[in-house]
Amino acid sequence: MKKEYKLEYNEIIKDIINNEHFLKTKKDIHHGSSKYEHLLRVSKCSFILGKIFHADIKSVTRAALLHDFFFGTRKEKEENSYLNHPLTAANNAKFYFNINEIEENAIKSHMFHHALLKKIFPFINRKEKAKIKDNKPTSKEGWIVCLSDLLVSVMEVQRYEFSYIANLSYLVLINIVLMKH
Ligand SMILES: [Fe+2]
Ligand SMILES: [Fe+2]
Questions:
Q1: How far is the CA of 38 from the centre of ligand 1 (A)?
Q2: Spacing, Cα 86 to ligand 1 middle (Å)
Q3: Mind listing the domains of the chain with CATH numbers?
């Protein structure tokens, strides 16, 4: 990131990243690393894309930073599920950080890619119903947050989760082979 961008980015995020409630996200694991790290990555990505596509930089960066601002994992509580957590995060963000309408809508629609995937592959996450219309971003900022989350999540799963599963499979395989000889 360019130096002047870095200063601008740090200025936008400083009140949120030092907040005691936001710091709780450091304890939650998300895509194999901490949720705090995930939120920072998505906000950096959104900040850069926001510059490229001339978006409202403050809103897109803050919305991205708060898009998964819920406590615990997605499996722990009903309100944190795949399709419910955007609303939970938006409510938390409203409560703790007084977000604007653009930010609120961008947080609520950040799982649009998941709703779309479910339409193509209905066997994914069968229990939850998702309407494309209800999850579609309504602003440029919303599309940027959604895209950034997708890009960062694919990178994280590949880097932190897939490699772990691959390593585990390798260990199991080695053990089976060794036990047979
Ligand atoms: Fe999310
Ligand atoms: Fe996310």
A1: 10
A2: 6
A3: 3-180 (1.10.3210)
**Cβ neighbour number for residue 137 with a 10 Å cutoff:** 18
pLDDT for 133: 80
Beta bridge partners of 33: 30
Nearest partner of 112 among 152, 144, 89, 90, judged by Cα: 144
Q: What tokens appear for 89 in the block?
A: 């995060």
Q: Give me ligand 1 centre to Cα 68, in Å.
A: 5
Rg (CA), the chain: 18
CA–CA separation, 20 vs 22, rounded Å?
6
Residues 52-83 pLDDT 10s: 999 999 999 999 999 999 998 777 788 888 88
Nearest bound ligand to the CA of residue 145: 2
Instruction: Give the span between the Cα atoms of 127 and 166, in whole angstroms.
Output: 28
